[in-house]
Amino acid sequence: MLTTRKTTRLKGLLQSPQTEFILEAHNGLAARIVEEAGFKGIWGSGLALSAQHAVRDNNELSWTQVVNILEFMSDATTIPILLDGDTGYGDFNNMRRLVRKLEQRDIAGVCIEDKLFPKTNSFIQGERQELEDVQTFCGKIQAGKDAQRDDDFCIVARVEALIAGWGLDEALRRGEAYRKAGADAVLIHSKQSRPDEILAFAREWANRCPLVIVPTKYYATPTEVFREHGISLVIWANHMVRASITAMQATARSIFETESLVDVEGRVATVAEIFRLQGADELLEAEKIYARSTRQDASAIILAASRGQGMDELTRERPKVMIPVAGKTVLRRLVDKFKAQGINDITVVGGYRAEAIDAQGAKVVVNEAWERGSELGSLACALEAVSQDTVVIYGDLLFRTYILNNLMDWEADLLVVVDSSPLDQAQGNKNDLAYCSAPDDRAMYQQKVTLERISSDAGWSGRRPDGRWIGMLRARGPGRQYLLEAVRQLQADADFSRMDVPDLVNRLIANGHAPQVQYVTGHWMDINNLEDLQQAGDFAHGQA
Ligand code: SPV
Ligand code: MG
């Protein structure tokens, strides 16, 4: 990280004993690209700034518009910017205000040329252009120098005498006057395709103060020649805007003619490259630190590998989660519920007919071993998706929204949802019986109860179950490590391929990380057979 001020660095470039180079940029993006290429400075070209807005280089952009663009360029970069300030946009007084505004935006210097406002580009009928009176122009330089607050802010005086056809002597006379008026450097401009008049000027100038050139027209001159003539700063003045014009024309033509993106896709920057240049990663990192209230760390893993039993016709071409219930697939309902909670990192683990899973807004991973596999095998396929706050859920669950709300509200490392309804009133699969540290005290919200066992045995340890685990587990903070550790332990077990999520939960308990229990009474169902499916329609409608 460079700590030196941008002004000081521009001054350093001008005064360094070797020839230095700066490249044109016309917006924040171009400026960033120039810096990434390795340049030590940027030329804020008046031609390029106006061209990118398709207006002419005749002060059609207002000076405040220029300053606003420069602000983006300066914010996007750490290297100094030398603004092409045309004539200073008015008289000495306008020049003073310009310098102050540029300093406020961390612009390192400004170059002004000895023409009249509104100026015309030097390459458009240059010989017909009128020059500013020398004394008036010197007053502008002096006013700018007196206005600057930072001693190292640079004012470069640009001599247009050669452009206007006044000859070498007039050019030298002007250069000398501007130097004496306080200019930090003199820019001598030429529109000839050979460098002769520039080199002649340089020889006569003999390093009285730093000399700056713009070899747009005499581009074929070997750079070594500039070095030999003691040129301090070479400005490559318009090549970023010209490069972009060529690229945009070719791209537009191709897309128009082919009515397709196929030909251009490999020739244009990727969207990921745009994000990189914008610094999207930095924002994601910053969100982790500052945007704590949202659920951006939360993820959901939906286990959806199974075909389901006794629903042969309905699941011939698709897994159970893709069966529509009241016009919407079970999976869509789940994904929507998570999204409504602000949980956008959603992973669906498919298996049977995984190709039929349509889960917009969610990633799909496939458990190839789903047939001999187990629920835990599916979860193991999605371990990368286990974040600082993860909900693991069965894909065939329908439930009232408040259940997920409450689950996300609770500050436990590990949390499971247990339905405390009497077993004879509950429908469906009665395997996942939950034994807890206390029965449901319905009067209490967030009652402190821990899970002691999930079992298919209705008389485990000679006890009566306290309810049924509904197939929702949340692990957050340290719970993430507990969960990953337990999965790894079980993966080492020969029986892993027959294990389900309750085996994982029981392992967590055995490891001393018993999940807390969130009791509910009904308001959910899972879909195990055709009868469930019929009820699911009613359930979903009741919800709507
Ligand atoms: C610019 O880049 O806008 C310049 C250089 O002023 S030139 O276009 O050559 O005049
Ligand atoms: Mg210009």
Would you mind describing this structure in some detail?
This protein has 544 residues and is α/β, with parallel strands linked by helices. The chain has 19 helices and 21 strands. Strands 9, 12, 13, 14, 16, 17, 18, 19 and 20 form a nine-stranded mixed beta sheet that branches. Helix 5 packs parallel to helix 6. It starts with 5 loop residues before the first helix and ends with a helix. The model has no long low-confidence stretch (mean pLDDT 93). The site of magnesium ion (MG) has 4 residues, from helix 3.
Care to give the gist of this entry?
The chain is α/β, with parallel strands linked by helices.
Mean pLDDT: 93
- What percent of residues are in strands? 15-25%
Poorly predicted regions are none
The proportion of residues forming helix, as a percent range, comes to 25-40%
Q: Give the total of beta strands.
A: 21
What is Rg? 36 Å
* Total number of helices: 19
The end-to-end span amounts to: 57 Å
Strand-pairing-aware structural class: alpha/beta
Secondary-structure blueprint of this entry?
Blueprint: H1 6-15, E1 20-25, H2 28-37, E2 42-44, H3 46-51, H4 63-75, E3 81-84, H5 92-104, E4 109-113, H6 134-147, E5 154-159, H7 168-180, E6 185-188, H8 196-205, E7 211-213, H9 223-228, E8 233-236, H10 239-258, H11 262-265, H12 271-278, H13 280-290, E9 298-304, E10 324-325, E11 328-329, H14 330-340, E12 345-350, E13 363-366, H15 375-381, E14 389-394, E15 397-399, H16 401-409, E16 414-419, E17 433-436, E18 451-455, E19 467-476, H17 478-491, H18 501-510, E20 516-520, E21 524-526, H19 530-543
